[in-house]
Amino acid sequence: MFNKIFACLSIFGVLHSVIYGASHSDIDDHSHEHVFLGEYATNVLNMSPKELEDMLFWLVEQRIDHDKDMKVDIYELKHWMSHVYHHDLENEIMQAFFDCNKKKDHDITFKEYRACLARKPDTPSPTVKSENRLVARWKRADQDGDSRLSLTEFGAFYAPDELHHQHMHGLLVDEYIEDRDSDEDFHLTFQEFISQSVDEKDLNSGEDWELSLNERFDKIDENKDGILSHPEVENYLFPVLYDHDPADEEAEHIMSETDDDKDGKISHYEMMKHLRVFVGSQVLQQGKLLMRSRDEL
Q1: Which backbone phi and psi does 100 adopt, to 5 degrees?
Q2: Does pTM top 0.90 for this prediction?
């Protein structure tokens, strides 16, 4: 699941979640809504339930069901979810790049990027800390050292937590440690580790909570010296991404939620029965309201 995979990554305050107000890794309680639909999600808000059903049938038939058996197996589902995830992120990066690239050339300067931020009404006022981090990420993304970012380099700057942006991961680990390292020794004790994990009110929520954090800390502390080093924190934050495509996790979540007969395939009946999984409860509600208003005309 996307929200499971990115739960630990949201702590980074990934750059574009702060700047643009949303992030591919900043997942909320509605994280699965519209995910399956990908680039077709923008078309569903004005559809009735019958139109939604027809659109999903078309999507499965034309884009997902490769063996044409009128069902979706896990391999077809993973292939589709990978397309959705990477297509959406690439579009997001390109949109941000060209929004800031007023000269319409092949790269942008930090000054151009800063001006782009200033034009966005929801951009928070910069602090010394946030500005230093922006500069550090810019420099790390600038692999050819020309102080300008190409579209590829900007992608690393914009989405530094992505698997193929491994040269950015160490910087994110630095930020994670700095946010918790109260004695500035660049290691994390248990108390430092949990300092931003929960609200103050949660500190009194019982033994189970403390036990789970102690177990997690002990698992991360590979050499059992009672503190977390930079490599240990990096292994904690990124191993899932090294081993799994988050799109695969989302596909497995959808299959587990909708494959009622456990035959490894999602039938048309199962898809319609679990329509909320594919289009989201908000879309269904809007569709019902729309159908009601049409009936009243």
Answers
A1: -90, -15
A2: no
Exposure of 224 by Cβ count < 10 A (0-12 exposed, 13-18 middle, 19+ buried)? exposed
- Residues for the chain: how many in total? 297
Q: Quick: pLDDT tens for 72-108.
A: 999 999 888 888 877 778 888 888 898 888 777 889 9
Chain segment 41-54, per-residue pLDDT in tens: 666 667 777 887 88
Output b/e per residue, 173-206; b: 16+ Cβ within 10 A.
bbbbbeebbeeeeebbbbebbbeeeeeeeeeeee
Q: Is 179 left (phi over 0), alpha (psi -120 to 50) or beta?
A: alpha
Query: What is the reported pLDDT for 291?
Result: 37
